[in-house]
Amino acid sequence: MVLVTFVLPLSLIEVILRTTNIGSPHAFVVHNDLVLKGRPHARFVNRSENVREVRYNNWGFHDRDRGTSMEAHRVLMLGDSFVEGRQVPVGLTFTALIERTYRDRGVPTEVINAGFSGTGTAHQYALWRTFFKSRIEIDHLIIFVFLGNDLEDNGLSLGNRQLVYVPYVTTDGGIDVVKDESLRRHAFVWARRQSALLNTAAQGYAVFRRWWSDRGDGGGSPMVAADNGVNSAEAWTETVSATLRLIERWSAETGAGSVKFSVVMINPATFYRTGTYRNHHYVDFKKGLQDLSRRIDMPLLELDFSRYPPEQLYSHDGITLGHFNELGHRLAADQIFDWLSSHN
User: Fold this and answer.
1) The whole model's pTM is what?
2) What is the CATH number of the domain that holds 254?
3) Among residues 2, 18, 288, 326, which one has the fewest Cβ atoms lying within 10 Å of its Cβ?
């Protein structure tokens, strides 16, 4: 009776989830014992803001398959979920649209999408250093900074530390990584990798937590440092200065290898409703980036969608604010392409 009542239905659900790729437990891997990234050729169903199947390429990113050596001018774009663009097909992300524009104009150029959801600058630097730097030839590295939650992702005391491996920025502009070595945590991660049902339940819980935290504000609510027993103002200030140091260091490292380095800022949807950021620390960070850009001659672009209602670009149902829809990606591609053309 127990077998019929519980085990068989759960087994049937497990089979359905696996065969439909709704809850693939093998979509992500920990690379070099440091950063989480996609598993090459993994398939899963995105349920953040819309429902669609995502297929990763041979490197484990939401992009077409790539080779390690250059056959054309090559631009690598690193960022979070706004760059990854799970909500739209691969060919409609702004990275793919920029690449297509170059091709249509007869300029051989590759634009590589290396965005990964839920990451900040520290994670992206670690990904570049451990995965791209020594094995992938590029001419130009562009990092995308999301002025909605990247500082939380970068700060040890500010972020939502739900993963086993979470890089953060240290005060000197370096990076370190949080590793939850508890048996309970590793057992849970192991179980998620074995069961599509458990993995789907965990993903659903994560989506619910973000929804509950965001309340449709299109940027994510801050995990207040004071809740973790530290001084909130001090933690924010340290994270701002440390992130700026990391970006300056990153620029110097790429320059030493004759790779151009640039930064693009993406505003949260709520910025176009209120004209403000969630707190003054993001204002300080933005000013710091602008000052750094002038001081070290680092090309800097702030995407500007002030002429459009945020629901027109940041929503997939016309109501809930979140990530770029297809129009948002197209307009971002236009601005970035024009900016790149003016700086080449």
Assistant:
1) 0.82
2) 3.40.50.1110
3) 2
